[in-house]
């Protein structure tokens, strides 16, 4: 605006001179005029300067903020890098320790030179296992990630014999096929059909011979101890295999005879975490509890399990110990049928409304996770969500989230259905719900369940995992549960359906009833 003012006033004075008219008050007037002209000009310049300095102040402030944020990000990155380096060094040390320990890597089962050390280490491990297992008798719950497994395997394979590889094949309705038939939906000329998917039995065929067998046993049982010693001797003398046992079992074997010096064991939790990389076959001697125990030792992939029945019920233990030689010989030769038992992965989140992303370590269960009222006499009040959709509020003694393998355990006792273990799904079974209309649900395998203890809950709830390791859940805490990627492959006596039906007939006397007599009065 100022330049146009200036131009217009200039033009005005020029035109008066041109007209020959000179005013006596001209100097005064011209000064005034100049002031008139300059005033808005100066005023305009001041406004601009103010505006400009304001802009400069804003820019400087923004630049300062950016510089500060950059410096703090740099500092944070440096701190994380430092933590990473420390953690990595610690991990590498642990790995090196494992690899350098003679007794676990003895390739041909020869007596290690440092036997005295070895025995005492095993004993120590017995003590240590108490720390590892905690007071409630389950291993710490660190779940392996895919990446870790790959990295670990590279390190371990340098030292250990490579693991036996095998192939799984899916057979349809008894007809054998080496090809895995995918359960895909096909669209034939616009008609939606499903591919044949039922009755698929999974069979395991070794591609290289198994070399390392881990035997896990129920504690405090004389018959189990005797069988274990027999089995270890047979595996060594007849099959020339590497045998691994728990530190407790190693001590028991050595107490019996120094012949068992060749048996290997572990001494710390790092070695337990690496077990899946060297064990080809896992044998359990005990009841269902021993299978649960053995599975809880494997936070990632689990080797094929051969469960021998030395308990009372034995839903998951189809093998009889009397003929263990024939049975193991046929398994070691293969192929054999397996049941892939799904596991659930559980995370506890403390103060879930605020710390949505901060969960505790994952816990894997083969049977179920139970959320109950513990010793409290109040009803539990549990808000349940499935993939963020509200399911219901459980008011009663508690809730069981079970695998299909666990469907014949606690869930069954609480009124849940018995489900074939090969069916992938999650059972949602209330415990004594105070409602006339509550019925158990079976949800598909892909869902994520969330059980939240509401802030207005009258008391805390308790979560337990395969009947062990109880964790208290305060109001505001939540438990997240979904299907884990690491199933437990258990060998079948016949196949998964036969074994399942046998277990419910034999173990539970399912639908046992006297057959109705023929000579009753007929209607009509
Ligand atoms: N009321 C109940 O029925 C009840 C109560 C608590 C725990 N349990 C079950 O006990 C399991 C822990 O077993 P444990 O042996 O360590 O404890 P445990 O020694 O107390 O045995 C519990 C019983 O459950 C049986 N069992 C375990 N898993 C089974 C399965 N998948 N199918 C059928 N029966 C099964 C066992 O054979 C045993 O008879 C828990 O996972 C839970 O399912 C059941
Ligand atoms: N290797 C092990 N180390 C520590 N505890 C174990 C081990 N194996 C099993 N247990 C625990 O011992 C208990 C009893 O085991 P298991 O259920 O196998 O025998 P059982 O009670 O005689 O059999 P059943 O359950 O069929 O009656 C379970 O609570 C289980 O967790």
TrEMBL record:
Catalytic activity field: NAD(+) + ATP = ADP + NADP(+) + H(+)
Pfam families reported in the protein's UniProt record: NAD_kinase, NAD_kinase_C
Top EC class of this enzyme: transferase
Top-level taxon of the source organism: Eukaryota
Family stated for the protein in its record: Belongs to the NAD kinase family.
UniProt KW keywords: ATP-binding, Coiled coil, Kinase, NAD, NADP, Nucleotide-binding, Transferase
Protein's name according to its UniProt entry: NAD(+) kinase
HAMAP family in UniProt: NAD_kinase
GO biological process terms, semicolon-separated: NAD+ metabolic process; NADP+ biosynthetic process
The UniProt record lists the keyword ATP-binding: yes
GO MF annotations in UniProt: ATP binding; NAD+ kinase activity
Native source species: Daucus carota subsp. sativus (Carrot)
Coiled coil regions, renumbered to chain: 63-97
């Amino acid at each position: 605006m100022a330049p146009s003012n200036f131009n217009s006033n200039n033009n005005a004075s020029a035109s008066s001179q041109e007209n020959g008219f000179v005013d006596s008050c001209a100097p005064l007037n011209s000064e005034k005029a100049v002031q008139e002209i300059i005033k808005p000009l100066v005023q305009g310049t001041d406004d601009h300067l103010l505006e400009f300095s304001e802009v400069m102040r804003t820019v400087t402030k923004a630049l300062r903020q950016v510089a500060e944020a950059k410096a703090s990000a740099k500092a944070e990155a440096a701190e994380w890098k430092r933590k990473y380096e420390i953690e990595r060094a610690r991990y590498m040390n642990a790995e090196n320790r494992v690899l350098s320990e003679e007794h676990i890597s003895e390739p041909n089962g020869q007596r290690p030179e440092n036997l005295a050390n070895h025995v005492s280490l095993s004993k120590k491990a017995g003590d240590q296992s108490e720390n590892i297992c905690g007071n409630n008798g389950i291993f710490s719950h660190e779940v392996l990630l895919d990446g870790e497994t790959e990295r670990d395997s590279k390190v371990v394979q340098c030292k250990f014999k490579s693991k036996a590889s095998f192939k799984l094949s899916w057979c349809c309705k008894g007809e054998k096929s080496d090809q895995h038939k995918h359960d895909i939906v096909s669209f034939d000329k616009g008609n939606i059909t499903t591919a044949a998917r039922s009755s698929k039995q999974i069979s395991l065929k070794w591609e290289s011979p198994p070399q390392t067998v881990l035997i896990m046993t129920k504690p405090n049982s004389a018959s189990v101890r005797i069988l274990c010693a027999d089995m270890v001797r047979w595996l060594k003398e007849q099959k020339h295999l590497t045998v691994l046992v728990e530190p407790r079992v190693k001590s028991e074997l050595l107490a019996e005879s120094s012949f068992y010096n060749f048996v290997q064991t572990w001494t710390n939790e790092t070695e337990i975490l690496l077990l899946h990389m060297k064990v080809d076959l896992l044998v359990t001697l005990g009841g269902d509890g021993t299978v649960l125990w053995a599975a809880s030792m494997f936070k990632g992939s689990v080797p094929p399990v051969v469960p021998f029945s030395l308990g009372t019920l034995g839903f998951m233990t189809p093998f009889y110990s009397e003929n263990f030689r024939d049975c193991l010989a046929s398994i070691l030769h293969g192929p054999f049928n397996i049941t892939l038992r799904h596991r659930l992965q559980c995370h506890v989140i403390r103060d879930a409304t605020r710390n949505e992303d901060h969960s505790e370590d994952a816990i894997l269960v083969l049977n179920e996770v139970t959320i109950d009222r513990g010793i409290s006499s109040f009803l539990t009040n549990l808000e349940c969500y499935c993939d963020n959709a509200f399911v219901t509020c459980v008011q009663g003694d508690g809730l069981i989230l079970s695998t299909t393998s666990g469907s014949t355990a606690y869930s069954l006792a609480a009124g849940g259905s018995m489900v074939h273990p090969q069916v992938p799904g999650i059972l949602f079974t209330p415990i004594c719900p105070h409602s006339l209309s509550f019925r158990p649900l079976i949800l598909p395998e892909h869902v994520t369940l969330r059980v939240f203890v509401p802030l207005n809950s009258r008391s805390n709830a308790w979560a337990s995992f395969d009947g062990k390791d109880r964790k208290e859940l305060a109001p505001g805490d939540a438990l997240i549960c979904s299907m884990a990627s690491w199933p437990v492959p258990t060998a079948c006596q016949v196949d998964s359906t036969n074994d399942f039906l046998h277990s419910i007939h034999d173990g539970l006397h399912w639908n046992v009833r006297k057959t109705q007599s023929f000579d009753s009065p007929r209607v009509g």
